[in-house]
Amino acid sequence: AQLASDAVTTAKILDANVTAAKLASGVLPTNTPAFSAYLATGYNASASAYTLLSFANTLYDTSGEFDTSNYYYKITETGKYNIQAQCRLQNTLGGQHYFGIALYKDTASNFSSETQIAFPRELTAFQDVTYNPETVFRITMDYNFTSGDFLRLKIYNGTGASKGISGDDSGQPKNTTWSMHKLIG
After folding, report:
1. % helix / strand / coil in the chain, to the nearest 5?
2. Distance from C-alpha of 21 to C-alpha of 19, rounded to nearest angstrom
3. Of 126, 138, 135, 127, which is closest to residue 163 (Cα–Cα)?
């Protein structure tokens, strides 16, 4: 049986009341706040150290909380967030070293008490190649954050020499990026 066009005015979906008034006003759940940042200009990651990833450019930032001068994001709404990050880093010719991308959280923007909450690191394979290799390191995860949390990313370079982090100026755009969005529900 087919319903008349005005027969359904209220529905309950996942405990969120959707009414004709909400539909008309455009107030529906969205995956915001959200941002996408990228590294425009490459630079070197320090030897045997964590180097802050300096995301000075954003494609979008729905809450205006990504600091492109200090390279952190401030959580404004408590909830579950999906995180996607990647960094392309120069590898060592014929070497085997630990590299990885790390996510840090703090309750202050100066990161005086930062905690590492994700660090998927990788041991690069010993290889006999005749070119300057690069490797892409990624974080893909969901995490609960609280309003007032500050986040930033670093790359770990486990070699005894500085290594290049690739930005858009490498000729291959958006290879070092970070994006997040709040999950609905």
Report:
1. 5, 45, 50
2. 5
3. 135
pLDDT digits over 41-92, tens only?
A: 999 999 999 999 999 999 999 999 999 999 999 999 999 999 999 998 887 6
pLDDT tens for 117-175 read: 998 877 666 555 555 567 778 899 999 999 999 999 999 998 888 998 999 998 888 98
Burial of 110 (0-12, 13-18, 19+ CB in 10 A): exposed
What does the block give as tokens for 4? 């008349």
Tokens 């858009």 correspond to 168
